[in-house]
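Input/output pair, single chain:
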Amino acid sequence: MNRYIYLDNAATSFPKPAAVQKKVAQTLRFFCANPGRSSHRLSLRASEEVYLCREKIAAFFGGYDERVVFTMNATASVNTALKSVLRRGNHVLISDIEHNAVLRPVAALAKKGLITYDIFKTAEDPVIQIREITAKIKPETALIVCCHHSNICNFTLPIASIGNLCRKKGIYFMVDASQSAGIIPIDIEKDNIDILCAPGHKGLYGIPGCGFCLFGKKFENASLLSTFTEGGNGIASESLYMPDFLPERLEAGTLPLPAITALSAGIDFVRQTGPERIHRKEIILSSMLRKKLSELENIAVHSEKDGSILLFSVKNCLSEDFASRLDSKGICVRAGLHCAPLAHRKLGTPKDGAVRVSFGYFNTPADVEKFALACKKITESEIRRK
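Output:
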């Protein structure tokens, strides 16, 4: 094949926009110094670029630039937020479609006896959803955490409704926007989000190596946050302790400058292209593929809605085996449980999981045609072989 057909955008979007590639090359060539450490011009330029990215993130999600904390990815953002906010004896609620990025750190804190947690059922109807959550709230509930959009199906939680409930109950609300940032509108003030966690390398079209936490107005007093990582950041170096203000309180060590400038350029690309336009294209491609796969024997589609993701399994064929067959034809997908066993359990996929197709802005109808044809050939050969 002349090129790979890349359909694994829920893991990392690819290819990257030309402007992102150009920005990374420019960073590496002209000003890849350590931001915030030195007074020379390259360090100052690097610091300016970091601050510019903070401004863009804050503007894109309705927050404040000084409350943007950079991390290495969304998982690091989730861990930073959880372990900075939670206190011994707190109770946490998470949804039944959470990624292991949320489930595992919460479970680890519970295993240590520091917190307790429960899992609430997700529902399409916001009224039912709020009823399900309310029934799980305890006097010691301090935090509700949920993904905005599932990483294996096109289910989106009503974060504005959940945020409103949390505000009324005096509970912190944290959102994992790994699959929605850059695609589905989010405004942390309007949606009553206290902490938004996201990666730069998925729907914001940056490169791997950078994620962020965006803290809401409840954290104007950063001393409410326990430090998660301690170290140097060029601020108050004579002190034994991390500063009492954001972002420096939660940022220690050298920041990933090339990934930050890539994220900055990625946000520009998403803004100029339009999140609605990007998402609409993904929905159109998903709908096309759903129709074609429904015509094939032995394939079961598990995603009920069209969106950026389509999940399917093949009768009498392990998902990893099917994905490997697709890879031999130059088609990149992901198979298995996708680090989301709770969500797979809810969808009722086979024990080994399923095959996930995830679209991005650079996919085309031709990709769908080639993918469907490859699936047809593989399933027909499997039937003949058996």
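The mean pLDDT is 95. The CA atoms of residues 163 and 184 lie 16 Å apart.
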